[in-house]
Every structure is written in structure tokens, then in C-alpha cells.
Amino acid sequence: MAGEKGCGVLRVEISERNLSVIFHSLFSSWMLAFLFEGQILYSLAAFYDLAIKVMVFGSIAAIFAGLVLCSFFIQSRAAAKRLFLYSYIFFIAVSVIFFFPPSLLWTAGITVGSFLAGGCVAAWAFYLKSGTPKNERIKTVADMLILSNVLMIIINMAAIHISPHVGLALSMVMLLGAFIFAWQLPEDHDSSFTSAGQKASSLSMVKLLFFLCLFIVIISINSGLMYQMINPAFAHLEWLTSWYWAVPYIAALFVMRNLPRRINRSYILYLAIAMIGLSFISFMSLGRSTLSYLVVNTLMLGACGVYDLFWWSILGEMLEFHKNPAKILGIGLSANVLGVLLGGLIGSTVTSSDTHISDPTLLALVVVCVTMVLLPPLHQYLSSLLKGHAYLSQFSEMSEQEQSKQVDLAGRFGILSERESQVASLLLQGKTYRTIAGELYISENTVKYYVKNIYSKFNIRSRAELIEIVQEKET
Questions:
Q1: CATH superfamily, domain at 12-187
Q2: N or C: which terminus of the chain carries fewer CB neighbours within 10 A?
């Protein structure tokens, strides 16, 4: 501290978790307001009377490519940090191009910028993994999504109600802030260790990721249809749509993040599917009034908030199962982008033809039905591999005191010793062997010895099975 005062600089220490939330939210607000169906781009198109549908779809496709390919050239935290810093400078340069009349530079800047943006999103996995324990990642993801969407609303309102160039300038300020905070990111170590048990289940993880991606693609088609159908239908309500559009999404994220510990979130997934169906039914049956927009948008975006947090947090849990977390997050989120792209192309094709407006809406309802069929087996498969996840089990949402009480209950059955109960309690909280060793003042090898004894006494082989055993003891 004395050295810092001597330099005349007041340095505020920010945890790695908070740094990761802040810098990625600032960057994401620029991406959402500009590259990814952003209002800055649409406002600029209106300003210059320019048709940009091909450019928009090209941008989404480039983001998809960046998400998928990121892990091939970013394989460490140090490389991820360099990608952030260099890309943010490039994004600021690309944004400057759009202060000038349309040219081929617009297309080139959007394409390359979108590819790098996809890579930056995937690379964030390194800091999500190292900065937040896995049982807390749902909160980190929720905080990032909430903050980025709040900032996006501010940028959108500036672009729509003042001028697109003011919105563009404000988004560049967000990028500058992202650069400043990303500069402070640590890069001294990589959290890429994969345990033997995790390696043994790698085949199951591949199957899970494939099934999860299929589910994400199908349900995200509704988002693409929404962009091409619902939003244009309420374009005359610009004063409302400019700020309310993302409000239900933010509210859903906030509610899901702060639900009471004992509420089973899995049931809300089914409710969210019903909300999507009701949204399209309302769109078909109601008019185009302010009240209709509030109903349709609240149902649709509220459901999107529930599902975005669902698969973001599931992917956050799965980061432990691969030495390069960018591959897991990149592939998983690319499914979301692919679904949006497919839905957008379908919606654009149908609405631009002579087909009646209800046809894409009926298609959306079919997608909802398919999603409803896929959810039960997906949920069952997820539950078998990620029992500690907040959407899948109530155990990880309990307080440490409640968890310890349940483990002590098992001990009273004469199964665990006092020390084994202490180790099991910390193990069930998602803590690593190193953390457990530090808290109990014992070596990691001793922790492994106790864990081996615990698993042997219960005749199990994993932490997930231990959770199941303890919950059975409670009942």
C-alpha cells in the first residue's frame, strides 16, 4: 500500500470474478447493440436508407464461426487475455469506419469483427472457470448477462432516440472500458486440470454436449423467428420497444439468480416453454397495440432469460471436463447462435413471400412442441452427470450449514467418521481437494485418502452419487 501511495496512484483491488463480469459485460453490450442484430446497425441502415439483411445474417454467421474455431488458436489464459486486448482495439477501429458513409469497409469490418467477437465470447471461459467455483458460476453468468443487457438498453436508446452515431460513440466508450478492465486480468496460471474421474467420463460429456447443443439449436429457432416477425410487427411502438425489449429478459435472469435455495428450478424450464408457446399464440390472436406488445414480449423474453441462463450455467459446469474450456463454451453457445440464424432465415423467407403471417407462427409452435419432447430426456441425462447444478438439484443451493447437517445425518447412521464428515461436507460444496486441504489443515493426499474411504463406505464412485446418497438419508 505504501508503494502505491508513493506513486501517487490509488489502486482499487478487484477480484478476478468481478473483473471478468465487468470487462465481458462492457464488451458484450457493444456486441449486442451493434453486431448481433443490434439497433446501432439498424439505425445506421435507416439513416442511410440501406438494406442490410445480408450483412446482418453474415455477421451472425461470422460470430458462429468465431465461437466454434476459437479453441484452435486460444489455449491458455494468457492467449485469451491477448485476444481480448487486441480485439477490443480492433473493434474500436472498426466502429470508427461506421461514422463514414457505407462502403466495402463496412462489410469487411462487420465480418472480421464478428468472427473475433465470437472468439472473445468463447475465450471468456478461461476466466469464468478460474475466477468462479463451479457451483457459483450460475451467479457469475447471471450478473454478466444482466449488466451487459442493461448497458445495451442504454446504447440502443441513444442510437434510436438521439442518433445512430451517438449510440456508436457510446458503444466505443464501453469497448474502452472493457480494454481497461481486461488489462488488469491475471494470466499467471491456467485452470485447465482435468481429474482422472473427469477423463473417464469424457465420452459421456461428448454425448451430453451434443444433446444439449441439439436442444439449444431447436429452442433458439424461436429467437430467430422473433427477430424477423415479432419485432418488425411492433416497429410503430419505437418509444416502448427501444427500452422494454430486454427488460423481461433481465427480470427473468434476476429472479432465477435469486430464487430461494430450496426451489427446484427444473420445473421453471417447462414453464418457460409454455411461455414461448403462449407468446406466439398471443401474437396470432391479439392486435398490434401497446398492451399486445407487453404481453407478447414479456412472455417471449422472460422465457429466453430462463433458458439462456440454463444453458450458460450448464456449460459453466462442464468447463471442468476439458483442458480447454473455450471449446466447451464456444461449441455450446455456437448452437444458440446457429438456432438464431436458422430461425432468422426461416422467418425472413416466409415473411418476404406471399405466405400468410400465421405460417411462421405455427412453425414456432411446432418448435415449442419438439422442445417439450426433448426436455425430459435432456433433463434426465444432465441430472445423471451434473447432479450438483442449480437447475438440476436442490443440494448445491443449500447453505453450508444445511449441507453439513445432511452429511452429519449420514454420520449418525454410523457410516462416516467425524473427519470424513468434514471432508464430505466440503466435497459436496463443490470445493477442490486443494481447497479442502487448506481449510482442514491437512495435505491433499490425506484428503484423497478420506475421499476414497467415503466412497468405499457408500459403495459409490463420484461426488454426484454422494449427493444422491445424502439426500436419500434425509428422506
A1: MFS general substrate transporter like domains (1.20.1250.20)
A2: C
